[in-house]
Amino acid sequence: MKSRHSTGFTLVEIMIVVVIIGMLAALAIPGFQKIRSSSQDKAVLSNARQLAAAVDQYMMEYGKSTVSLSRLVGITNYVKNLDTVAQEHYPDMYTAGVPITVTGVGSARTITYGL
Fold first, then answer.
1. Closest CA to 78 of 92, 61, 90, 98
2. Residue 115 scores a pLDDT above 70
3. Structure pTM?
4. In whole numbers, what is the pLDDT of the chain averaged over residues?
5. What is the pLDDT of residue 7?
6. FRET pair for 110, CA 20 to 30 Å: which of 37, 47, 57, 91?
7. Could you give the count of Cα atoms lying within 13 Å of 93 in the half-sphere of its Cβ?
């Protein structure tokens, strides 16, 4: 009498593997989101530092205590291009000695750079 031996996977085995992969993905997603938020914050902070340096340079050159964003960013200005990475919003006006507050980072966070 010959026994029939199957070399394939059963439906139950495949379902168990799919469930295990789903559980691993569910554990990994929050970690990836945290890393993404952290990298966005670092990029926004870098932009704020560039703007702060541009504000200082502008104020030293022109002796004014306030300056608009349009005077700082542009192909012929101090910051050539200000790339947004998380739908953030930069202030339109900058004043000497006042920290730069960037709002709407990732649609929820606020980052302040300065004093």
1. 61
2. no
3. 0.76
4. 91
5. 80
6. 57
7. 4
Is 90 exceeded by the pLDDT of residue 1? no
What per-residue confidence (pLDDT) applies to 97? 87
User: CA nearest 40: which of 115, 107, 97, 95?
Assistant: 107
Backbone angles phi, psi at 102, to 5 degrees: -100, 125
Q: What is d(CA 70, CA 93) in angstroms, rounded to the nearest whole number? A: 9
Q: What percent of the chain has pLDDT over 90?
A: 77
Confirm if 105 and 95 have CB atoms less than 8 A apart.
no
The 8-class DSSP code of residue 79 comes to: B
Cβ atoms of 105 and 44 closer than 8 Å:
yes
82 within 8 A of 71, measured Cβ to Cβ: no
The residues that bridge with 95 in the sheet, in sequence order, are 66
Contacts for 66 with CB less than 8 Å, ≥ 6 apart: 93, 94, 95, 96
The DSSP H or E segment spanning 73 is none
Domain boundaries, the chain: 13-113
